[in-house]
Design goal:
By secondary structure, the chain is α/β, with parallel strands linked by helices. The protein contains ten helices and twelve strands. The termini are far apart. The radius of gyration is 21 Å and the shape is globular. Helix content is 28%, strand content 24%. The longest helix is centred in the middle third of the chain and has 18 residues. The chain folds into two domains: 246 residues, P-loop containing nucleotide triphosphate hydrolases (Rossmann fold, 3-Layer(aba) Sandwich); 69 residues, no CATH class.
């Protein structure tokens, strides 16, 4: 993955200050129902007051343990599931306020690559039919032009034209994910959310898909939100990284800054788990005690305080807010904030 790493760390790589995606105070709560009348007795706070921006041409990595709300956040942003609250704006258009017809048009501008490269494909359709379907629905081409567009997309993701007539079960896992990528690219989106696109693949195939995504993002100048639970994977593709814990973002900064100067205790624990052959980057393993609390019963104060090795009294009673503690570095932790007055 050397080529991808060099691309991300190249200071001359063009970036834009113009915001494409603006996420503000997004929440997704799932009701807990019990009893004969299915009364609501509580809520699972899968995504709880999340805010961030994605600039045009930027790759934002989103990481955290399984169950922290990453996938729910992605699907809420795209309105694959309806939000509980908050606002999402794509290039100035309020996504949550769109009606069904306008939302269908918006989907041409924002696409998703799913985690499961087999479950996300229709087993009854050929690869060519699945890719062509999006082109036809949005009326981007017709007749022979559709087939030509499909061939071009397959070639772009490294598959031969003959793959058009084959069904999902005839491909390997990596090839299926390439089809998923081609399908997402078919409508020419400005934003793609890749939901753990390499977690179900072999390590050798992961590198190929990561390099493919990095090349496509650079060549097409699109924005990418790359979701993963492995900080080692995110490092090689992201410009900035946001770390999630229990439905909230606890730290966000430039990729190089996060890997050299992580501040939140949770991020430090994740970083210490990354294997490295570089003796300069090796650090003492930080083992977190206990399990992640249930999002249906979030502890008071900082949600991480039950496992934090640097916990203070204030952490148990007051919730820290995500704020900038240095240039471009945001952290939600009382270690870097003024203690509330009693």
């Amino acid at each position: 993955m050397t080529e991808t790493t060099q691309t991300r760390n190249d200071p001359s790589r063009p970036t834009s200050d113009e915001v494409l995606l603006r996420v503000r105070d997004v929440r997704k709560y799932f009701p807990i129902r019990r009893g004969f009348f299915s009364r609501v007795v509580g809520h699972v706070k899968a995504v709880d007051h999340v805010s961030f921006d994605v600039h045009k041409g930027e790759v934002l990595g989103l990481v955290g343990e399984s169950g922290c709300g990453k996938t729910t956040l992605a699907r809420t942003i795209l309105r694959l599931i309806e939000p509980t609250g908050g606002q999402v704006n794509l290039d100035g258009v309020s996504v949550f306020d769109l009606g069904a017809a306008d939302m269908r048009k918006m989907r041409k501008r924002m696409q998703i690559i799913f985690q499961d490269p087999y479950g996300s494909l229709n087993p009854r359709l050929t690869a060519g039919s699945m890719i062509a379907e999006a082109i036809q629905i949005h009326k981007l081409a017709r007749g022979d032009a559709v087939r030509q567009r499909v061939v071009e997309l397959l070639d772009r993701v490294g598959l031969p034209a003959a793959a058009m007539s084959r069904y999902p079960h005839e491909f390997s896992g990596g090839q299926r994910q390439r089809i998923g990528i081609a399908r997402a690219l078919a409508v020419g989106p400005e934003l793609i959310i890749a939901d753990e696109p390499v977690s179900a693949l072999d390590v050798s195939i992961q590198a190929q898909i990561l390099n493919l995504l990095a090349d496509l993002q650079r060549d097409l100048e699109m924005s990418l939100v790359f979701i993963a639970h492995d900080l080692g994977v995110v490092e090689h593709i992201s410009d900035r990284v946001a770390v999630m814990y229990l439905g909230k973002i606890v730290e966000m900064t430039a990729s190089s800054m996060l890997y050299e100067h992580a501040k939140h205790p949770y991020t430090k624990a994740l970083m210490s788990a990354i294997p490295s052959l570089d003796p300069k980057r090796r650090s003492e393993r930080i083992v977190l005690k206990g399990d992640v609390p249930s999002p249906a019963d979030v502890p008071p104060g900082c949600p991480f305080h039950t496992r934090c090795p640097e916990v203070m009294d204030v952490c148990r009673t007051h919730v820290p807010v995500l704020k900038e503690v240095s240039a471009g570095h945001q952290v939600s932790c009382w270690l870097y904030d003024e203690k509330p007055s009693r």
